[in-house]
Amino acid sequence: MQIPITIEEVDVFTLDADILVLKYAQALYGVDLQAVSKLSKIKTTLKDSLPEYGKFLMVPTFGTIVPKEVLFVGTEPLFQFRYQSIREFATRALTYLGEMSPQTETICFTLHGRGFGLDEIEAFESEIAGLIEAISQGKFPKNLKKIIIAEKYRSLAENLKQALRELLPQGAVVVRDSSMEKIPLTNRLKEAGYTSDKKPVIFVAMPFDKKMDDVFYYGIKGAVNNAGYLCERADQTHFTGDVIEQIKIRIEHADLVIADLTQANPNVYLEVGYAWGRGKPTILLVQDVSELKFDVRGQRCLIYKSIMELEELLHKELNDYSETIK
Prior knowledge:
By secondary structure, the protein is of the alpha/beta class.
């Protein structure tokens, strides 16, 4: 028996699946916020009945979205929901569905961590490891035929597909026989989520602009990960309330800060100023030196004209930085 795991570049609400699994981090954000908004049209009390940490709520959709049901999984508050929590979330969700909805054939998950600053690939590997862990223990719906990870942004979807090929070259979890022989896990899968917060971290400050996505994914993130760091940023959130505090905490816990000063975004300058105030080493980037404001013009800055050039410059800079701290 094989259970394929695939990445599909699609809006989760249009995906033909039996069950869409979403977290509820004791407040509503992103996809779960959109789902509750859509489902409240048929279940007006939904918002008041969402599950606390450790509990679950299954909601029929009755055609308001394409997936037939949504499973809300109660988790820790958002900024406590890190890599190990993501792994445990995936295991708990699949285990619950194995017990309560054994006839389920197709399950859709989303990627967690992207909107609140986690390293997407590390978060993804943690989620996949949690799913495989549940399957290896026989804790999944007996009729399960496919698990889908939905990601509508093409650049991230392509990165996830590559990561999945490395984790599961065969594209599926192989359940060897009815006795549920234990599925062997690579060290990478054994450690995913459990050792993540022990890895060194680079926090990236850059404009919240879709036009900068390729700069991040192809110019910055690859160089950072190849140097052995997790790459974290806050890319989907707004600079209000506790989010500012959380960004400050991320900077304080980071080993290094990379800041792209392209577009002269005031929020990025705020993060750079805070990093300097905390004594954090920083690497400054910019596409056009004329965009630099007076307070950083005297600082060393990597100037790049293309994404390839940025990756090469950053690769060398991070190697030099790693050598100085050994």
